[in-house]
User: What shape does this take?
Amino acid sequence: MTTKTDLKEIVELISLNKVFEDFTEEEKYEIAALAERKHYSKNQLVFSIDHKGKYFYLVEDGELLLRLKDSVTKVYSRGKLFGEIGLFTQSYRMGTIRALNDSSLLAFSGERVYDTEELSAATALKLTKALTLKIIDYISASQQTSSQHLIENGESNVVEFKTNPSRSAMSKILKTLVAFMNTKGGTLFIGVDDDKTIKGIPQETYKEIDQFNLDLVNMINNHIGSFFTSLVSFDIEEIDGKTIFRIDCAVATRPAFYRDSGDELFYIRSGPSNTRLQPSGIINYIQRRLSGEN
Assistant: This one.
């Protein structure tokens, strides 16, 4: 039986995922009551392409690796949601996912979501809409912005490559994220050379990738602002047997500045590079953005 403490913990976890950002606390508690905890040991399979979808999942603890049919991989950690297509269809899964280490998931049954005795019709409809939007984003990404496709097309106003995630490269990474936020968003790959060669992340660096994630989030908070942290997401992927690090950045709804030694620097993307604008240029650029010209 789910206790009040359990429900509170589940609601806190649900609140970490942007799918639920427009849900009220009452609605989150409704959804939390449907959660079934499932535990997986290291290397244990959650589902494969031979399984039909019945659940969608939210990661409570641990890390899980998704491998799609085209061999593209993605890592899911705490607060990440996957398998939502299983809510709407009984067709076979689009990939295989297994635990990278001992992991705990919250599983949500499609049948229970649409049982009006378990979840109100209004909340079920709202959840359907939120997950549908996520699926649309996923389909768009899988068709247009797979990592291999982006890398093959080279650096551009929405794509940049870095060879490794060294601390010395951190300021350049932050400036690129600011430029993406102020323009159209974009994707930064670490472990890829300027000539599109996939070098991969060194093994010793890969072992410390969690610390790199934490350092980068802290630096975004300190040098750009905590408001912008939610615009950035991180993934570890494997291409041609080499591990790369992918950072996706959404466009910001307000100007983003890189703060350094008391200065506030404003960057935009101009082709495959970052361009710093002076105050007069910033005003003109923001006015164009507000008028819809950019």
Q: What stands out?
A: The mean pLDDT is 85. The two ends are 53 Å apart (CA to CA). DSSP finds nine helices and 15 strands in the chain. Residues 147-291 form a domain with the Methyltransferase, Cobalt-precorrin-4 Transmethylase; Domain 2 fold (CATH 3.30.950.30).
